[in-house]
Specification:
Elements: H1 2-14, E1 21-24, H2 64-83, E2 88-92, E3 95-97, H3 99-105, E4 109-113, E5 117-119, H4 134-142, H5 144-153, E6 157-158, H6 159-164, E7 170-172, H7 177-188, H8 193-207, H9 212-227, H10 230-241
Parallel strand pairs: 1-2, 2-4, 3-5, 4-7
Antiparallel strand pairs: 5-6
Helix pairs in contact: 1-2, 2-9, 4-5
């Protein structure tokens, strides 16, 4: 999916015929983020061949380069979402967690169904809560204090709260979600194509102090440092055992 997203975003960079993008999930939820079941949980376990190229949980120190390159590849999706000139309308049903939460934050506008919920999942697994632009976007979108509480705790907030704090434009029934997105997109199509593109560019310039690229690089290094710690193994083990993690000081 990472490579598919890169391909379509690279295409949109030069596609002047496409003027608006609608981003939505397929299935029972928007996105639960990284599937941590795919990765080994213990340093003592033998790593199966199919996991050799996974970037988050390989334990040998010599793979840190590969981890950093892979993490950067993911982070580049976020910067490309902002660099394309088309406004992105995010439609959220069910959970948007981890990377899914990041994709929604990088969108220009968000519409949620009544069953939508959001959380910063990384902080609960021993990683940093700052990942894939979260520490850049969320304080700008809902304010520093609210963003800090969400990023520090990793708690879920629902569609109603998201609307109250201005994170989503509006909340609709799930069966009305796509229609609401198309209605908003249609209203944008009545505007000047160049005017719309220049407006997004101006918003990006306004937000870019410090730059998104700077924040992504800081977050990438933070995540890679966390990924080689015992905290990640404990966080993931606790997740599967449905208990509170016991982190060492």
């Amino acid at each position: 999916m990472i490579e598919d997203l890169h391909e379509i975003l690279d295409h949109l960079m030069i596609n002047l015929d496409c003027r608006v993008v609608i981003l939505r999930g397929e299935g029972r939820l928007f996105s639960a983020g990284l599937d941590i079941k795919e990765a080994p949980l213990s340093q003592k376990r033998k790593i199966p061949e199919e996991y050799k190229n996974k970037f988050f949980f390989l334990d040998a120190p010599e793979v840190i380069k590969r981890k950093i390159y892979a993490q950067s590849r993911v982070g580049q999706i976020i910067t490309k979402m902002r660099k394309i000139s088309q406004p992105i309308i995010g439609l959220i049903h069910g959970a948007a967690s981890g990377a899914g939460f990041a994709f929604i934050m990088a969108s220009d506008m968000r519409i949620a169904s009544k069953n939508a919920k959001f959380n910063n999942a990384f902080i609960k697994l021993g990683f940093s809560g700052s990942d894939m632009g979260s520490s850049y976007f969320l304080p700008r979108q809902i304010g520093m204090s609210r963003a800090a509480e969400i990023l520090y705790t990793g708690r879920f907030f629902d569609a109603e709260e998201a609307e109250q704090i201005g994170f989503v434009v509006k909340v609709v029934k799930e069966e009305e979600l796509l229609d609401a997105g198309i209605e908003l997109a249609s209203s944008l199509l009545t505007k000047s194509p160049l005017g719309l593109r220049m407006t997004k560019e101006a918003i990006n310039f306004t937000m870019d102090a410090p730059s998104l690229e700077t924040l992504i690089q800081i977050e990438n290094r933070t995540q890679m440092l966390c990924s080689v710690s015992k905290d990640v193994m404990e966080g993931i083990q606790a997740f599967f055992e449905k208990r509170n993690p016991q982190y060492e000081r």
